Amino acid sequence: MTSSSVFSAFSALAPYGWDEAWADEFAPYDTEGLLPGRVIRVDRGQCDVVTAGGVVRADTAFVTPHDPMRVVCTGDWVALEPGGNPRYVRAYLPRRTAFVRSTSSKRSEGQILAANVDHAIVAVSLAVELDLGRIERFLALAWESGAQPLVVLTKADLVPDAVTRAHLVQDVELSAPGVTVLPVSALGGDGLDVLVALVSGGTSVLLGQSGAGKSTLANALVGAEVMEVRAARDVDGKGRHTTTTRNLLALPGGGVLIDTPGLRGVGLWDAETGVGQVFAEIEDLAERCRFHDCAHEAEPGCAVLGAIASGELAERRLDSYRKLIRENQWIVAKTDARARAELRRDWKRRGAEGKAAMEAKRGRWR
Q1: Of 208, 183, 192, nearest to 99 (Cα)?
Q2: What is the CATH number of the domain that holds 283?
Q3: Rounded CA gap, 209 and 186, in Å?
Q4: How does pLDDT run across 197-240, given as a tens digit for each residue?
Q5: Domain containing 244: what range?
Q6: What distance lies between CA 354 and its chain's CA centroid?
Q7: Sign of the alpha-carbon dihedral angle for 239, 242, 244, 247
């Protein structure tokens, strides 16, 4: 069949994001008698796949390589055997986007949280003090994935004072250039209609720490109690994991939502471009520094330090930028020999400069 015929034959998948571009990618598998489907849940080598005929259970043994970056994940479009017990996934289609973080293992592997995502919703609770550094970290990963980030400040009903709420929104906006920041009360409905309009027609992934109100927000978007909800602890606002797998849910207003477990750690994974997006104003200022390799520490003619001195740039932003850049360099160096060598040379240069500075101080003391 032609790609148009393939699209029409499986048009029942349209609510899950099926379009003519996916049909074109799937066309070679159609000639083999395989069926298209979208992975809505993965669990220990098995996955639930929504097909034109309904949801089926399938085994991923044929597409589970040693590389953890290439395993089947929630959001993938796959080519599925038409029958069999067990039924197998034979391939997955090339991903348009992928949300990846580094694992907590010492091997510094990447872990794919969701695939083919259009919007990355970062849920941040207003019930606790804002952690702007963590928000910046989530946004760096979101930008790097290829998705459009969106920060949702949940539990806005707990900040009834409009002025205080506006200040909190402004604080996040200053840490999230180019990103919409939306206060929402899933229980009261405030801001929910705006969020529904923003995410309709695409695939959204819901990210955040435990206790951020993701499950409550997911239920509000879906319009049904599909996710279990537990109250956060009063003492620190932290919640327990209520979502333990990544689940893809169809939204009544169009589009789909991938809900993820609460993330304790959000390590970067080769996210240089994403970090640059989050700290766009620092990278713009760096273009005006006197030296092209300016480290923004004590160099003359440093536009970044000048912006801090004038109050144009918050010192906290520069500290956060440095931290994420260092972390990303370390991750890349673990897997890239050239980057590792460059990092070693940089360490040696800085060590030599520090040693020379100490020798100069000792000379003055004598």
Answers
A1: 208
A2: 1.10.40.50
A3: 17
A4: 999 889 999 988 878 888 899 999 988 776 555 444 444 445 44
A5: 99-259
A6: 37
A7: negative
pLDDT band at residue 273, thresholds of 50, 70 and 90? confident
The amino acid sitting at 262 is: G
State which H helix or E strand residue 333 sits in: helix 315-335
Instruction: Specify the pLDDT at position 243.
Output: 45
**CA neighbor of 122 nearest in space, from 106, 111, 133, 107:** 133
pTM of the model: 0.80
> Helix, strand, coil: what percent of the chain each, to 5?
40, 20, 40
Burial of 236 by CB count in 10 Å (0-12 exposed, 13-18 middle, 19+ buried)?
Answer: exposed
For residue 188, the 8-state DSSP code is T
Rg (CA), the chain: 24
The total number of residues written for the chain in this structure: 366
pLDDT computed for residue 359 by the predictor: 60
Q: Count Cβ atoms within 10 A of the Cβ of residue 272 and give its class: 0-12 exposed, 13-18 middle, 19 or more buried.
A: middle
**162-174 helix and 132-145 helix, angle to the nearest 10 degrees:** 50
- Rounded to whole angstroms, how far apart are CA atoms 183 and 294? 38
147 in Cβ contact with 205 (< 8 Å): yes
In sequence order, the 6+-apart residues with CB closer than 8 A to the CB of 166 are none
DSSP label at 231? P
User: How does residue 270 score in pLDDT terms, banded at 50, 70 and 90?
Assistant: low
How far apart are the C-alpha atoms of 289 and 296, rounded to whole Å?
9
Contacts of 104 (CB under 8 A, 6+ apart): 265, 267
The CATH number of the domain where 69 resides is what? 2.40.50.140
Closest CA to 6 of 28, 256, 90: 28
Q: Determine, yes or no, domain membership for 266.
A: no
